[in-house]
């Protein structure tokens, strides 16, 4: 074999090795470590649901990204946003007299709000949660908790905690700006104005009527 052919063969081998290394790095960046960064606490919840099987959990999360990663959440028109803010404030007030009805209404309100933001339609709870987990992994658990509280026989304290956690997702979705894929961001003046219209008076020192507290 001539020297030229030997050099050419070595060059091909080197190129192949570089390609393999690049693919491996790309998979690592977009695989487990990338999914952990993207999903945060949601990653741990899915792993736990798969009894610690990280491969199965990552396959599920990758499938969610494939199905819902391209969603571009729509901003809400100002008048619609204000309507949602007013409805949520009314739900919070309703909780004092009727916690079960309040969490049921909060569940419905989040479903409608998610649909208006461009996520799967109202009535497709599982698909909504799946899509929201891709874009709002830090707060999607609040939707799960309030949905569970609305459809099970939960205690008053459980419902109160569910409402508090659901409010975090509500405040994220109701912002006039597009969603930010679950990443933390500085609170804007627009957010502060929206939150000032949604007072939350269900601290532990306040109890619904008839709760026996």
UniProtKB/TrEMBL annotation:
Residues 180-193 have a biased composition (Basic and acidic residues). It comes from the Bacteria. Residues 174-213 are annotated as: Disordered. Keywords: Membrane, Transmembrane, Transmembrane helix. The keyword Transmembrane helix applies. The keyword Membrane applies. Residues 204-213 have a biased composition (Basic residues). The chain crosses the membrane at residues 6-24. This is Secreted protein. It comes from Streptomyces albidochromogenes.
